[in-house]
Amino acid sequence: MGEKSRVLVKIFGVLDITGEVVAMLLIVLAAAVLALIVRLKLKERPGKAQNVLETGVEYLDGFFTDLLGKEKGRKFFPFLASLFVFILLSNYSGLIPGVGLTDYVKAPTSSLSVTAGLGIITFLFLQISGLRHSVKHYFKRFVMPMFFMLPLLLLDEIIKPVSLALRLYGNIFGEEMVTEELYSIFPVGPPIVMMGLSLVFCALQAMVFTMLTSIYLDEVTEEIEDAPKLKKKNKKLKGDIH
To answer: Which of these, 114, 116, 85, 119, lies nearest to 23 by C-alpha position?
Structure first.
């Protein structure tokens, strides 16, 4: 788990296929097949499996709606929900017996290259969403409230994906290392307790990643009022108070 990822296959001598890549492909394939099966078997009177999935979707919808509001929550739901499900399944894949102990299949989020990729995808989505919302407000937020804030705000924008990637990688990699060390010392007992705690821990990390992404999305799509308008609005409020 703490070793460098082993390259299993090279495609065209450029693309490296590692245990993390294999796990990612399996996760994406499993999620796609499950979504297709559910889509084909949707019923007005849902069965137990459909009820469980609908409850999960409703919970996520409510979670993102509380953070972003109804309009933004529904608009960005496909991206945020997909991000959450992928990270959750990636985290949980490390709890499957044998995963991480072999080079052929490894938990994707225990690799910095994978979490960095998620950070870059999130960063690009944030920039595109901000520009699509309003080009004017997208650039204005880097110089508000003062122009000299530009370097700091640009640095903050770059740090966001880095912090997301490092936080997820550090937590999942650290959790796997602790479990491995406990297993080498106590083959029975503590490792089982740790794996039980990991069920909650892995879900929490997926939630934290998507929650922070939601907050960043809200920031890049919020309306920034012009200074003259804001000043006029404040005067009106003061007049109403008096």
So the answer is: 114
Summarize pLDDT for 50-87 with one digit per residue, the tens.
788 888 889 999 999 999 988 899 999 999 999 999 99
Beta bridge partners of 10: 16
The residues, any chain, with a CB within 8 Å of residue 34's CB and separated by 6 or more, are: none
Strand partners of residue 18: 7
Q: Parallel, antiparallel, or unpaired: how do β-strands 15-18 and 7-11 relate? A: antiparallel
Helix %, strand %, coil % of the chain (to 5):
75, 5, 20
**Each residue of 99-146: pLDDT tens digit?**
655 556 778 888 888 899 999 999 999 999 999 988 888 888 887 777
Beta bridge partner(s), residue 17: 9
pTM for this entry:
0.80
Q: Where are the domains of the chain?
A: 7-42+50-225
- Per the CB < 8 A criterion, the answer to whether 173 and 1 are in contact is yes
Are the C-beta atoms of residues 68 and 76 closer than 8 Å to each other? yes
Separation of alpha carbons 201 and 100, rounded Å: 17
* Beta carbons within 8 Å of 70's beta carbon, 6+ residues apart: none
